[in-house]
Amino acid sequence: MFQQDSIGKATDGSDEAPAAEEHITLSQAAKLAPGRPSPNCVWRWCREGVKAASGQRVRLKHVRFGSRIYTTRQWLSAFGLALAEADAAHFERGEQAAEVTAPTPRCRSRRLRETARDDARRRHDQAERELEEAGL
């Protein structure tokens, strides 16, 4: 029996093989997950994973018995924690990078937007004048 861990690597399951009674269907997992996602969404978590803020894909660990897919409550919990940890690590790196670089003043970006808007108005007015001169 092969299973897939939260980052998508297939393992033989020897390190933490749960008892058969612990396995739950993806429909049951969907009912247990916060926000009550659809069973199809839980299947996508298994197959494609969820892209964390860092860009890393975190996948829900699952096993296949015949044509059926199962996971466990522990794996569902570990999936949520792995996703939260990946996001937290990304935002911590972002905060550290923000401390290193000086923030740009807000008024400067407003001035840039106003300048760009003025340029667009000038180009628009010029185009209208050219159309009037052409008789259109």
What does it look like?
- This protein has 136 residues and is an alpha+beta fold.
- The chain has 4 helices and 7 strands.
- The chain has 2 domains: 3-100, no CATH class; 104-136.
- The protein has a 5-stranded antiparallel beta sheet with strand order 2-1-6-7-3.
Percentage of residues in helical conformation: 40-55%
Distance between the termini: 74 Å
Calculate Rg over CA atoms: 26 Å
Strand order of the largest sheet: 2-1-6-7-3
Mean pLDDT across the residues is 81
Strand percentage lies at 5-15%
Please give the count of helices. 4
Q: Could you name the ranges where pLDDT drops below 50 across 5 or more consecutive residues?
A: none
Identify the overall geometry.
elongated
List the helices and strands and how they pair.
Elements: E1 3-4, E2 10-11, E3 23-25, H1 26-32, H2 39-47, E4 50-51, E5 57-58, E6 62-65, E7 68-72, H3 73-100, H4 106-134
Antiparallel strand pairs: 1-2, 1-6, 3-7, 4-5, 6-7
Summarize the structure.
It contains 4 helices and 7 strands. With 136 residues, the chain is an alpha+beta fold.
Name its key features.
two-stranded antiparallel ribbon, 7 strands, 5-stranded antiparallel sheet, single chain, 15% strand
